[in-house]
Design a protein that fits this description.
Structural class: alpha+beta
Strand content: 5-15%
Distance between the termini: 23 Å
Shape: elongated
Number of strands: 11
Strand order of the largest sheet: 1-2-3-4-11-5-10-9-8-7-6
Largest sheet: 11 strands, mixed
Number of helices: 21
Helix content: 40-55%
Length: about 625
């Protein structure tokens, strides 16, 4: 996270001063250019044109301004929604309207916008308020660029068509990158959020242009389709200048793009527009800011407290990559476009599905459920969701596990080889974390990195909370296996071994865990899942998840040696498009997860909490 201590802020003062100086310099330059252009201006004609503005025109301009600010307030709500900040939409909209109305009039939007958001969002950290201000500003600029480019290409007489084509090309590249390579735009909004922001920018800018259009006197002779492209380009110039309301830059650019329009009537209309679109909202925004925030509505579901867990596998939440909904129904994972309910809900019910769908909608995502059992899949299907089998979970009852049956002949051979090589397996309370870390790192390097999302990754404090079995040979650690412990089951999580571990080492680790679970009367021990692709699955979702099955044949062979029972696991989503997108994004999240350190940084930056103290800050 960024440092907001007094010392750190003091170190940034020179940069802040430099930016302020650049803004003042640009504003002064544009005002000088405007003064030169208006050397021959008839001020009396401007005053007459301004006094001729009719009440109906003022009313229409104020109505268009209201429509524009309807969109303005929703920039903040959309950003809060995507970040899942827990701020209610009405509170976010009110804060956004106040911040933008006042800051666009005063200038220095990054500073004034942050201060006003802090005022209107009690309890908000300064860093988060600053990030919101930057995010909203960048969102508007991106939306403005796309809307302007579309307008310039649609209208036949509009200028800068080549530039507009380039802008839309960049936008198309950004969309493709978000969809196909989201890790390259991990911090950016998803396509749903991008679409909302562009739509809001269209409403905002076109309504602002209408506010100016209705104030134009007839003698200006400007049709709306002539005014609109000039207005959008001038608005961009005003934004770049950083001056309050873009004053100077807007006028110079607008008049330059409409050389045939009479100066006096046009300037009178711009002055009236500034009163309706800048001065009036700034006064109202200042009043709202002085009054302060309203009592916040009930907070949206965000990070939940510690809740009962149905499946031991949900203990993966302590790794910090996932979190629980406040409703308590789900452990959820986030991908760019999906909010994924992991495994089964606390209680399978229609309300659990509705809670997941509502939480997904609030974060501008589609809902999905990953690796749920048949009961949850049947419930989802009854609600009209699409369901597909994506994996099979291998499990055994340790209390009735018998090595002697013919189906486990291969397991017996592996165990004999490990024993002959001198491998011994122990469960230790004190873990050799340094040696375990070296084995895990070498294993990850040899396997193209560790998997994520629904799979655990090695970290010292993470394995401390698990049941850990260690394989030794001649006093040296050669492998380890960890299990999520639960009152009714253990679930296999990590299996790591050294390059020179004897054949049968991992089998010996699992056999020792089964024996210990039997001693503790644990009724169910899961060897975790094997992708359906390893069983020859041919559904479209299997093809989307095929990368997860690249080690599937080996996993299937290994787990089959224990002659387990196989329980189907499913992927569910509301419709086929969501199903396909969920399959692709989950596969990508498993194969290429963000680092654990980056996961903690993002959660801290966006205000998410994890279930345990982050472990990777401690040494191995």
């Amino acid at each position: 996270m960024q440092d907001y201590s007094i010392g750190a802020v003091a170190d940034r003062v020179p940069r802040i001063v430099a930016r302020a100086g650049l803004t003042l310099g640009l504003a002064g330059l544009f005002l000088w250019l405007l003064a030169i252009r208006l050397t021959d201006l008839d001020a009396a004609a401007v005053r007459r044109a301004l006094s001729d503005v009719q009440a109906l025109q003022w009313g229409l301009a104020i109505a268009a301004t209201a429509a524009s600010f309807w969109a303005v307030g929703r920039y903040d709500a959309v950003v809060h929604r995507y970040l899942e900040s827990g701020v209610a939409p009405a509170v976010a909209r009110r804060a956004g309207v106040c911040a933008i109305a006042v800051s666009q009039m005063l200038g220095m939007g990054m500073i004034t916008g942050t201060v006003l958001r802090l005022r209107m969002l009690p309890g908000q950290a300064p860093g988060m308020a600053a990030r919101l201000t930057v995010a909203v500003a960048l969102s508007f600029l991106a939306g403005w660029a796309v809307v302007t480019a579309i307008v310039l290409l649609i209208l036949p007489a509009a200028p800068f068509r080549l530039v507009a084509t380039g802008v839309l090309g960049i936008a198309a590249l950004a969309v493709a990158t978000t969809l196909l390579w989201p890790h390259r735009m991990r911090r950016g909004p998803n396509l749903f959020t991008q679409g909302r922001l562009v739509g809001l920018a269209a409403v905002d800018t076109i309504a602002a242009a209408l506010a100016l259009q209705v104030l134009m006197p007839p003698e200006a002779g400007l049709a709306f389709l002539t005014l609109l492209p000039a207005f959008l380009i001038a608005q961009g110039a005003g934004l770049v200048s950083g001056a309050p309301g873009g004053v100077g830059a807007f006028e110079v650019t607008f008049l330059a793009l409409l050389p045939a329009a009479p100066q006096e009537p046009v300037l009178a209309a711009i002055l009236a527009w500034r009163m309706a679109y800048y001065a009036l909202p700034a006064v109202l925004g200042g009043i709202f800011a002085a009054i302060g925030p309203r009592p916040s509505p009930v907070a949206l579901p965000g990070v939940a407290g510690q809740l009962a867990k149905v499946r031991a596998e949900t203990l993966i939440e302590v790794q910090g990559e996932h979190r629980r909904l406040a409703s308590g129904h789900w452990l959820v994972g986030r991908t760019p476009h999906m909010l994924v309910g992991m495994f089964d809900p606390v209680q399978a019910s229609g309300s659990a599905l509705r809670n997941l769908a509502s939480a997904a909608d609030r974060s501008d995502r589609w809902p999905a459920i990953y690796k749920c059992t048949g009961r949850t899949a049947a419930l989802a299907r009854s609600q009209g969701w699409q369901v597909a089998r994506v994996a099979r979970e291998a499990w055994i009852d340790p209390r009735h596990f018998n090595h002697a049956i013919s189906a486990r002949a291969g397991l017996r051979r592996k165990l004999r080889r490990a024993e002959a090589a001198g491998v011994t397996v122990l469960q230790a309370d004190t873990l050799p974390l340094a040696e375990m870390g070296r084995i895990a790192a070498r294993w990850a390097g040899a396997h193209g990195g560790e998997r994520g999302f629904s799979m655990g990754r090695y970290a010292p404090d993470y394995v401390r909370q698990q049941q850990v079995f260690l394989a030794w040979r001649e006093g040296r650690l050669v492998g380890f296996a960890t299990f999520h412990p639960g009152p009714a089951e253990w679930v296999l999580d990590l299996m790591r071994h050294s390059f020179d571990a004897p054949d049968g080492t991992v089998h010996a680790l699992i056999a020792a865990a089964i024996a210990e679970a039997d001693r503790r009367l644990v009724p169910r021990l899961s060897l975790a899942a094997v992708p359906e692709a390893a069983f020859g699955g041919s559904l479209p979702v299997d093809r989307a998840l095929i990368r997860l099955g690249r080690d599937g044949a080996g996993l299937l062979q290994f787990k089959a040696a224990f002659a387990p029972r196989w329980q189907p696991l499913y992927l569910a989503a509301p419709h086929r498009a969501a199903m396909a997108l969920a399959a692709c994004e989950i596969a990508r999240a498993i194969a290429a997860p963000p680092s654990l350190r980056q996961t903690e940084h993002d959660h801290a930056e966006y205000g998410f909490a994890t279930a345990r103290r982050p472990w990777h800050r401690r040494g191995k």
